[in-house]
User: Which sequence fits this backbone?
């Protein structure tokens, strides 16, 4: 910002120019500039771990010790006084060197399973306040327990705040545009990141339905000219094009599965994703896999076997398999998929075992260590995933059924 100036307008006249000493101009480059400025902090923390000044987080192998987004920083630390002192020293030195000093009045610490620890003693060098879960981070709730509708009440409040008197002054065509373009979009960010409760989606549908048919007044069945599921159907399928939130949220969540396949080195890969079994089944049914080394494709769940998955073709074998998450490479090695079958069930399943074994022989499967498995999305010409195609394909499945 040293190349720009500001001034105050007083009675329409601009005052003296004010020179900026520090800061970043808002624009397309701002996120990149924030990353460049904050990256040294990440490197300092990594160096402290290499020197043994910060201990690994126990319980699981966390690839994310620190999460950085613009000027917001989340650091995971062990509840040990020496480690907190080291962190505060690193943050203090980083502030002196870069000018990006921490505002402790806006900083907080939240404890996870620290009931038997004296946090006052551990946090002596931390000048911020202690907070409790659930927290708000980047506009979304963070909780260590099950996500409840009360944690997402702010979404309903935000949607209701957009209504007011507007519904009474709009025609039904105008209300449809408001519902489709504004009310339906306000929850998109949360639906992408979180597996929200169905009750929240039902509450959002109540607001949208009331505005569309009753101008945001009390609604009854007589005012609804078309059933809500038909309203929430794409125009090409005979609906009004208002998004079906349950199916739209599923389409948004499928991107997690797609990215975890294409870029397995992302920091969040391996952590719990906001995807349920229905999401994974839709993803597997909508993709085709070409085998390379077989170390990424799932033996039972991925669509590498032709028309469908082995899970669908051989449901009894999948049901009695003790290791359902094996890759193709691991399952085919020494016929491990056979030894994975539960003891005492092999004899009853023998006809299915023979059928699958003959099928594998007929396919003449050859794995190559020089190539990786590749995946293709069925519902786009390019083979790349898109949220719109993932949403529309769910209605195509209904038409086929």
Assistant:
């Amino acid at each position: 910002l040293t190349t720009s100036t500001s001034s105050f307008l007083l009675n329409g006249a601009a005052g003296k120019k004010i020179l900026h000493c520090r800061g970043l101009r808002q624009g397309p480059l701002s996120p990149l500039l924030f990353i460049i400025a904050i990256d040294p902090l990440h490197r300092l923390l990594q160096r402290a771990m290499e020197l043994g000044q910060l201990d690994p987080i126990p319980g699981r192998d966390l690839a994310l010790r620190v999460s950085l987004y613009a000027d917001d920083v989340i650091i995971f630390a062990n509840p040990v006084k020496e480690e907190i002192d080291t962190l505060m020293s690193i943050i203090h030195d980083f502030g002196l060197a870069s000018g990006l000093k921490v505002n402790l009045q806006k900083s907080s610490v939240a404890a996870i399973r620290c009931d038997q620890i004296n946090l006052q003693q551990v946090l002596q060098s931390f000048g911020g306040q202690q907070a409790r879960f659930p927290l708000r981070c980047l506009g979304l709730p963070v909780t260590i327990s099950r996500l409840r509708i009360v944690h997402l009440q702010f979404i309903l409040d935000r949607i209701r705040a957009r209504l007011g008197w507007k519904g009474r002054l709009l025609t039904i065509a105008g209300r449809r545009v408001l519902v489709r373009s504004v009310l339906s979009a306000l929850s998109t960010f949360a639906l992408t990141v979180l597996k929200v409760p169905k009750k929240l989606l039902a509450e959002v549908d109540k607001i949208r339905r009331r505005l569309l048919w009753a101008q945001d007044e009390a609604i009854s069945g007589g005012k609804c000219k078309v059933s809500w599921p038909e309203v929430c159907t794409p125009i090409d399928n005979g609906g009004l094009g208002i998004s079906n939130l349950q199916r739209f949220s599923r389409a948004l969540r499928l991107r997690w599965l797609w990215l975890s396949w294409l870029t397995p080195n992302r920091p969040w890969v391996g952590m719990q994703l906001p995807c349920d079994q229905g999401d994974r089944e839709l993803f597997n049914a909508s993709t085709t896999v070409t085998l390379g080394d077989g170390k990424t494709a799932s033996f039972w769940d991925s669509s590498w076997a032709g028309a469908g998955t082995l899970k669908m073709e051989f449901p009894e074998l999948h049901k009695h398999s003790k290791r359902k998450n094996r890759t193709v490479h691991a399952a085919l090695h020494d016929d491990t998929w056979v030894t994975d079958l539960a003891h005492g069930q092999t004899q009853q399943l023998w006809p299915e075992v023979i059928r699958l074994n003959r099928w594998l022989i007929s396919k003449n499967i050859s794995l190559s260590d020089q190539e990786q498995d590749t995946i293709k999305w069925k519902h786009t010409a390019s083979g790349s995933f898109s949220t719109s195609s993932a949403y529309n394909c769910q209605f195509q499945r209904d038409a086929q059924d």
Summary: The chain is about 40% helix and 10% strand. The longest strand covers residues 66-69.
